[in-house]
Specification:
This protein has 14 helices and eight strands. The protein is of the alpha/beta class. Strand 5, helix 12 and strand 6 form a beta-alpha-beta unit. Helix 6 crosses helix 7. It is globular.
Length: 299
């Protein structure tokens, strides 16, 4: 039994423990070292109160969200795989990991609620298209804690191949730009779990593939050390595509303009970022200038 009082506006505060009211058969609670659902290592990060399962793609408790993350547009981009469908696929036992998605047949889908034969075929076509992806998209799609799109791209540039990422020590992972101890530990823990390695292997066996290359030191990339800010609408190149191409060449695409910005790319209806660039004397490029930059021609 504990004494609780109101602290601040609504947050409760534990004042003390009333040990004399504790039941005699009570036992000291010990936080489990492994997930009670899937058996993967449960870890508590320094400075946090909660413990998290490292099972990721394998853990049934995380399965639905892991599938939705894997299928999102910036990951494997599986159009038509939404919340309701994922819920049915998981609850029916048809899908236990992302790799199981690629074993679905028309008959498995057509019988589901709100899934006509045409919709089912469209999803199968989307699954087939998703097999051809990129290493950054695949790494991001795995849903590793602390690993967002930018980190996935940095890992792909640095190591070149998935196996190199999976086999790296925490110390080696920390050599990647913007990867600190927390991210390195999360990556190493994820790939140390046999369950996660099995899922990755099953995805590869199902036909998911991507171009792999040689490891590239960040300084070897043509735009290494260059910071670019995008603002406004580009006529021929979408914002995400422009960002991806710049980052692939080693540039850092920032969200705000400062004295350290090397170029601001201004499209139609550019706003305050353009004004700040002009005030700071930062070079401003139009879309033609951006294309020159991408071709390795410094304005």
């Amino acid at each position: 039994t504990v004494v609780v009082r109101r602290a601040g506006d609504v947050i409760p505060e534990v004042v003390s423990v009333v040990t004399e009211r504790r039941l005699h058969e009570s036992q000291i609670f010990t936080m489990p070292s492994h997930c009670p659902v899937c058996g993967s290592l449960a870890e508590r990060e320094e400075g946090e109160a909660d413990h998290r399962c490292s099972g990721g793609l394998f853990c049934p408790a995380q399965r639905k969200q892991a599938l939705l993350h894997y299928a999102q547009r910036r990951a494997l981009d599986i159009e038509g795989l939404g919340d309701k469908l994922v819920e049915q696929l998981v609850d029916s036992g048809r899908v236990r990991s992302p790799a199981d998605l690629y074993g679905l047949q028309l008959a498995d889908l057509a019988g589901l609620d709100r899934m006509a034969e045409k919709s089912a075929q469209n999803l199968l076509d989307a699954l087939e298209r998703s097999k051809q992806t990129t290493l950054p998209r695949f790494v991001f799609g795995l849903g590793i804690r602390h690993v967002g799109e930018a980190t996935a791209k940095a890992l792909a540039r640095h190591f070149g191949q998935l196996d190199a990422i999976m086999q790296s020590s925490e110390e080696a992972l920390e050599q990647v730009p913007d990867v600190g101890p927390t991210v390195a530990h999360s990556l190493h823990t994820f790939f140390a779990q046999p369950h996660n390695r099995e899922v990755v292997q099953a995805l590869r066996a199902a036909g998911v593939h991507w171009p792999e290359g040689e490891a590239l030191a960040p300084t070897d990339l043509p735009l290494a050390g260059v910071t670019v800010v995008l603002t406004g609408t580009l006529a021929n190149l979408g914002r995400e595509e422009a960002k991806a191409q710049l980052e692939a060449l080693g540039a850092k695409v920032a969200g705000s303009v400062s004295k350290k910005t090397h170029y601001v790319v201004a499209g139609a209806e550019a706003g305050s970022k353009l004004d700040k660039a002009l005030a700071l004397g930062v070079p401003v490029l139009d879309e033609a200038g951006l294309m020159q930059l991408l071709e390795g021609i410094r304005p």
